[in-house]
């Protein structure tokens, strides 16, 4: 069957399902809800279209794995609210596409009533953690450790591989991140959950999905409670080999982490999407990535758009309202080809209430600003820093 014939068949089947659903809604008693959630699985090759009813996020994860085995394809979601507890993952593959529509929402469930905590200090090299409530963790899931007062960044990330008396086995072994001096008893263990985690994959797209975090979480998340967290094939200091992540016409709402964060990916595209109440960065083109961020609306975020060791990226025609910082240039790595060649033009910055409209970390040069507008923003806060860049606003 040709792709055009498959498309015509999909349109016909979708129309029929819609008519049947409407008929059921019209004839069923009010006390008899009709379940219509699910998605169409559309293989990229010559495989058959099929409809899969939604049972849990495991249903969608299994479909992603099936598409991975046949060279990719698309999941097209029917309207509905889809609860995401563990997070969907796209790993080591290419050509996977998630499509929604105006009434397709991914939603976090309520947070657990209580978390587990460490009962002993953690040392580098440990592969077992002593905790007070092992039953609150699940084998195979990822977790992060935070200080007892929830302040600061995570101090450890791990996956549970098994259980021992009064503790859990973990992978990888404990390795202190650069900012970590100690991991103390009493620290909280928080599930690492993002709506979508893309790992070492190319040609991935997400269209027309609403990601509703419900302001879940006690922590100011960096790699948890995010909308889309994408990590490519890359090594610090080297140009990325992963490419092509597209996010279009999506909405990100009430996230304690970041809306979209991309590490080590060339050609990240974020277009015509909306971001509301994002604690951290709404959009971050992160270490050794390049991208295009255009025609988006951001309201109430820690940072509207972060260019963090990004290169040759464009941020244009966005409206950034009530953000602490509108666009932030941030530097961690010394390579000369990052933090340069970026263009920020024709954006509107409204009431930035923190650092300013556009901010530059010291030592970043070779970027261009032009045609940006600042409303309700004092002149001294419109552009902060930026020596060595073309600052034609």
Poorly predicted regions: 10-34
Q: Which CATH C-level class of the largest domain is it?
A: Mainly Beta
- End-to-end gap: 54 Å
Structural class: mainly beta
Number of domains: 2
Q: What's the mean pLDDT score?
A: 90
Largest sheet: 16 strands, parallel
Could you characterize what this model shows?
The chain is mostly beta strands and 393 residues long. Helices cover 11% and strands 41% of the residues. It folds into 2 domains: 76 residues; 200 residues, 3 Solenoid (Pectate Lyase C-like), CATH 2.160.20.10. It has a 16-stranded parallel β-sheet that branches. A 12-stranded mixed β-sheet has the order 2-1-3-6-15-18-21-23-25-28-31-34, with helices on one face. Strands 8-13-10-11-12-9 form a 6-stranded antiparallel β-sheet, with no helix packed on it. A hairpin with a 2-residue loop joins strand 11 and strand 12. The longest helix is centred in the N-terminal third of the chain and has 25 residues.
Main features:
2 domains, mainly beta, 393 residues, globular, twelve-stranded mixed sheet
Summary?
The protein has 393 residues and is mainly β. It is built from 3 helices and 34 strands.
Break the fold down into its secondary structure elements and pairings.
Elements: H1 3-27, E1 38-43, E2 50-53, H2 57-69, E3 73-77, E4 80-83, E5 88-91, E6 94-99, E7 104-107, E8 116-117, E9 128-130, E10 142-146, E11 156-164, E12 167-171, E13 188-191, E14 196-199, E15 202-207, E16 210-212, E17 228-231, E18 242-248, E19 251-255, E20 260-263, E21 265-271, E22 274-285, E23 291-294, E24 297-308, E25 314-316, E26 319-321, E27 325-330, E28 343-345, E29 348-350, E30 356-360, E31 368-370, E32 373-375, H3 379-382, E33 383-384, E34 390-392
Parallel strand pairs: 3-6, 4-7, 5-14, 6-15, 7-16, 14-17, 15-18, 16-19, 17-20, 18-21, 19-22, 20-22, 21-23, 22-24, 23-25, 24-26, 24-27, 25-28, 26-29, 27-30, 28-31, 29-32, 30-33, 31-34
Antiparallel strand pairs: 1-2, 1-3, 8-13, 9-12, 10-11, 10-13, 11-12
